[in-house]
Amino acid sequence: MEVFLVNLIAATFRVSTPIVLAAIGETYSERAGILNLGIEGIMYFGAFVGFLIADKSGSLWLGLLMAILSGIVFGLLMGFFTVTLGVNQHVSGLGITLLHTGLTLFTFRLFYGGRSTPPSIPSFQTLNILQNNPILGPILSQYWLTYLTFLVIVPLAWWILYRTNFGLKIRSVGENPEAVDAAGISVPAVRYAALAIGGGLMAAGGAFLSLFQLGAFTHGIISGRGWVAIAIVIFGNWHPVRVMLGGLIFGGTFALQLRLQAMGLQLPVPYETFLALPYVVTIIALVIAGRNASYPAALLKPYRRE
Questions:
Q1: Is 78 contained in some domain?
Q2: How many domains does the chain have?
Q3: pTM of the full predicted structure?
């Protein structure tokens, strides 16, 4: 039982990493008043771009960098649609997801369509800290991006949003853009910046799957993690630390169902029940927490300067 719990905790942090990265990116966007439903597509495209560049260049670092840059570009594209043109945010986000999905599948077939086996690359290796310790060794055996996510990116997001002037601008734009504009602050500039940061983090979450965990790219690599990230943002009430906890809940449930499958337990439930378990838990948590959610007042509302 001790070994099971230790491995479960270790797997929880690994599985949660892409979800937390994407959810923190969505938090930036929604705090600025923009619901970015393109998150699933940005993660998908980021996973592919990272894999493609790493495969062709031989550099995992370059692959990760290009994945993040692709997320920033498409975050700005979301800004062009919703901030500059004032297009409906639901339509814009879904359109970006469809665009990314189609573009990714087309490009994948262009480069790898003729292969009989799925392409793969050597992935980033875990950091073996205290590897001789039977308890802390497996738990601390994580990828460097996992450490960066939980020890830097999440605390930094909290500090930026609640302790800096830039974070105050983001939250103010998401609550009362008219007042921000009256104070001489550019609402479009703040929203563009938040979407760029958010897009980069979403793409990094997708690249984590292809460059760290799998060392490969498959058509179902994201598997709805982007939509789960949106639910987790609501569950966390748009607070980075609570969003991280929501990501850990999903990651822990996902890791648990993988462990139960690996153990081969003969339970009187269908196999698909295990696959659905993390998403069911996410829905239940969202229903419970959504009742008291404090949505940013200007979320989904386009702003036009009079």
A1: yes
A2: 1
A3: 0.92
